[in-house]
Write a structure and sequence with these properties.
Layout: E1 10-21, E2 30-41, E3 45-49, H1 56-63, E4 71-76, E5 79-80, H2 85-91, E6 92-95, H3 107-117, H4 122-135, H5 151-161, E7 169-173, H6 181-197, E8 201-206, H7 209-215, E9 218-223, E10 226-231, H8 233-238, E11 243-250, H9 254-261, E12 267-275, E13 278-285, H10 288-302, E14 306-312, H11 316-324, E15 336-337
Parallel strand pairs: 3-8, 3-9, 6-7, 7-8
Antiparallel strand pairs: 1-2, 1-4, 4-5, 9-10, 11-13, 11-14, 12-13, 12-15
């Protein structure tokens, strides 16, 4: 595919994106992105999955023209983000981590103003506002000030406001952070509806494994500014053969734990991590039933204190552990592999 062009079946193509924030005073420069590249098929939900600080939001800011890359290229909805940012902005909707609506205005007023700012005529703005309020389950609250909305309602209104100009690509940056389980489930339903019924391309950044697994047609796992692996959730999990074994550790000595389980047959990809008084032993095995008993016996013999022991089929947590080398929840440290 020629540089800076977009295939008909792709909504986004990014190549070798690098973002370096210059140092200030004694603070060194920060390399937030280090050669990230990927493509997003049109009409799909594409997930950028990684822990906080992995580079997800920086990538989104570049793709939405809110930040310029230090190097690399990106084409969104057929337009180069650096050479033609105005056309990119006209083709996308963006929902940031913070709310974008005015709490003093009503829901309908917020949507009408958002549409007018996008160049939509007054009559059409009113029509689109009421249609979106109905689609997002907010019609009965259309005349209520947004300050009286729940967190989930306000988040749905944020998404509706990003759709008033009928964009081709919608960016959602951590859309369910801070929402309760019911509101999160409602947001998940809306995202799937938008992709299915509206044929909209949705780019979702998240650090919730379940959210990525449930919503994304395809995932890019990112860590420390780098693209690690891309594929559907099912494909990524299928690349890990066998079962996963996890043991919660109490005040662990990682070296002692590794030594205790080193001789267990069939145990592989062993990672031991400690954080304060807690820790985890994670490994893979082809025979979980046999491995559980052997691991428990080995830990008991070594005097290692532990809590829950669980075996399961591969999860996205296991995918992250396999490709990155440490657990998702401990992204700031480097796991030690036996």
């Amino acid at each position: 595919m020629p540089e800076n062009t977009l295939r008909d079946d792709h909504a986004i193509v990014a190549r070798d994106l690098v973002k370096v924030y210059p140092g200030r005073g004694r603070k060194p420069a920060v390399r937030a992105l280090d050669g990230v590249g990927f493509s997003v098929p049109a009409g799909r939900v594409f997930g950028l999955l990684g822990p906080n600080g992995a580079g997800k939001s920086t990538t989104t800011k570049i793709l939405t023209t809110l930040s310029r890359p230090t190097s690399g290229t990106a084409v969104v909805a057929g337009h180069d983000v650096a050479a033609d940012p105005g056309s990119v902005r006209a083709s996308i909707g963006y929902v940031s981590q913070g709310t974008s609506t005015d709490p003093l205005l009503t829901a309908r007023e917020n949507l009408e103003i958002a549409a007018r700012l996008r160049g939509v005529a007054a009559g059409e703005a009113r029509s689109r506002a009421m249609r979106l309020l109905g689609e997002f389950g907010l019609a009965e609250a259309s005349a209520r000030p947004v300050s009286r909305f729940s967190g989930g309602m306000r988040r749905r209104l944020d998404v509706a406001a990003a759709l008033v100009h009928r964009p081709r690509v919608l960016f959602l940056d951590e859309p369910t952070t801070g929402l309760d389980p019911e509101a999160r489930a409602a947001m998940w339903a809306e995202i799937r509806r938008l992709s299915g019924e509206e044929a909209l391309t949705v780019v979702l950044t998240t650090h919730y494994m379940e959210e990525a697994d449930r919503l994304a047609d395809e995932l890019l796992l990112v860590n420390r500014g780098r693209a690690v692996v891309q594929g559907t959730p099912a494909e990524l999990k299928a690349r890990l053969h066998g079962d996963s074994l996890r043991v919660s550790l109490v005040e662990p000595d990682p070296a002692a734990v590794r030594a205790a389980v080193a001789g267990i047959a069939g145990l592989r990809d062993v990672v031991v991590e400690a954080s304060g008084v807690d820790g985890v032993l994670a490994a893979r095995t082809d025979d979980a039933s046999a491995a559980v008993g052997a691991v428990i016996a080995a830990l008991d013999a070594a005097g290692v204190r532990y809590g829950q022991v669980a075996a399961s089929h591969p999860t996205l947590d296991d995918v992250y552990l396999h490709f990155v080398g440490h657990t998702f929840g401990d992204a700031s440290t480097t796991g030690a592999a036996a």
